[in-house]
UniProtKB/TrEMBL annotation:
Signal peptide region: 1-19
Membrane topology: Multi-pass membrane protein
Primary location recorded for the protein, binned into one broad class: membrane
Keywords: Membrane, Signal, Transmembrane, Transmembrane helix
InterPro entries on file: Mg_trans_NIPA (IPR008521)
Transmembrane parts of this sequence: 45-64, 71-88, 100-119, 131-149, 202-220, 232-252, 258-279
Name of this protein: Integral membrane protein
Organism this protein belongs to: Streptomyces lannensis
Upper taxonomic lineage: Bacteria, Bacillati, Actinomycetota, Actinomycetes, Kitasatosporales
Length: 330
């Protein structure tokens, strides 16, 4: 099978797993709003979301072995495309016309990117100084986005809680994108067979991958407390931006077709971004359906909501009528 086709197929399965994990994390965040990390670690649903994320990450690592960053990372937008029918299924509703339109725009944009970004399997890797420089720059940017009172706020009149969630989602996307770029370095270096599998370069970059992957997971968990649509859209857009910058500037990756290819890639990126934003804005908050608690995945995807039980109409209770007193005979 062609390396590009294999990378696309692996990215597709990875996107589906990431979509299931995102829905699970959003349910868990809604149920445990304000809970600390230690409380999340004691929750079984958290560990099932970790399993879904880990499975998606393994598929993503395999895709990075066969395709360049400029090809694999934009396909992460398929996560939101997969989340639309999955969320509709969990909510017991049909996919709306607006959601189908957003899906079509995203797929058309990704098809344009596939034409220009397809290329041979990657063979360049980041040197230790380059990896440390990328890690330091990304850590500083994440700090600016997540520090309390940060002035880096999304445009618009969103509430303070929503702004915090969107900032954390952007930081999560950057962390995940850098983790993917560093993962490609580890994968190529470990399978090159020209050096030791436990060389200092591989060990240092692998530790950075673990740090940024874990940070991205925790940041996305806090981001989803404000809902799924907007944060997932920002994670989906920030991830390929960070990875593409690294791939084009440090790993020697190039777009196919010269100037025409660059224009086609920009048009495709614009269409895919338009579709992702449309999907994030159009999807209603899912209604939690009863879960089969004996099935762990179903339990994760349909956690109990925080809505109070129904108590009937708010009609004042009328006092019971009192019997008339006996009147004396005249």
């Amino acid at each position: 099978m062609n390396a590009t086709v294999l990378a696309v197929v692996l990215s597709l399965f990875s996107a589906v797993a990431y979509a299931a994990a995102a829905v699970a994390q959003e349910r868990l965040a809604a149920r445990t709003s304000g809970a600390g990390v230690l409380r999340l670690l004691r929750h079984p649903a958290w560990w099932w979301s970790v399993v879904l994320n880990a499975s998606a990450a393994l598929l993503h690592v395999a895709a990075l072995k066969f395709g360049p960053l400029t090809l694999v990372q934009p396909l992460g937008a398929l996560t939101l495309v997969a989340a639309v029918p999955l969320g509709a299924r969990v909510a017991g509703r049909r996919v709306s016309t607006v959601e189908w339109r957003g899906t079509a725009l995203t797929l058309i944009g990704l098809a344009a990117l596939l034409v220009t970004a397809s290329g041979p399997a990657p063979d360049d890797i980041l040197s230790p100084p380059e990896a440390l420089a990328v890690a330091g720059t990304t850590a500083a940017l994440i700090g600016l986005l997540t520090l309390p009172g940060s002035r880096l706020r999304p445009v618009g009149g969103t509430a303070a809680g929503s702004r915090t969630g969107l900032r954390h989602a952007t930081a999560s996307g950057f962390a995940s994108g850098v983790a993917s770029a560093l993962t490609q370095t580890v994968t190529v270096a470990a399978t090159d067979r020209s050096g030791s599998l436990l060389s200092p370069q591989v060990v240092v970059v692998a530790l950075l991958v673990a740090a940024f992957a874990t940070g991205g997971l925790l940041l996305s968990q806090t981001a989803y407390r404000g809902g799924l649509g907007g944060p997932l859209a920002l994670v989906t857009l920030a991830n390929p931006v960070a990875a593409a910058v690294i791939g084009l500037s440090l790993l020697g990756e190039r777009l196919q077709g010269g100037v025409a290819g660059i224009l086609l890639a920009l048009a495709g990126a614009a269409l895919a971004s338009w579709g992702v934003v449309a999907l994030s804005r159009s999807a209603p908050e899912p209604v939690v359906a009863p879960a089969d608690e004996d099935h762990p995945v179903a339990a994760v995807l349909a956690l109990d909501s925080l809505a109070p039980p129904y108590e009937g109409p708010l009609v004042p209770k009328q006092p019971a009528p009192t019997p008339p007193e006996h009147l004396p005979a005249m």
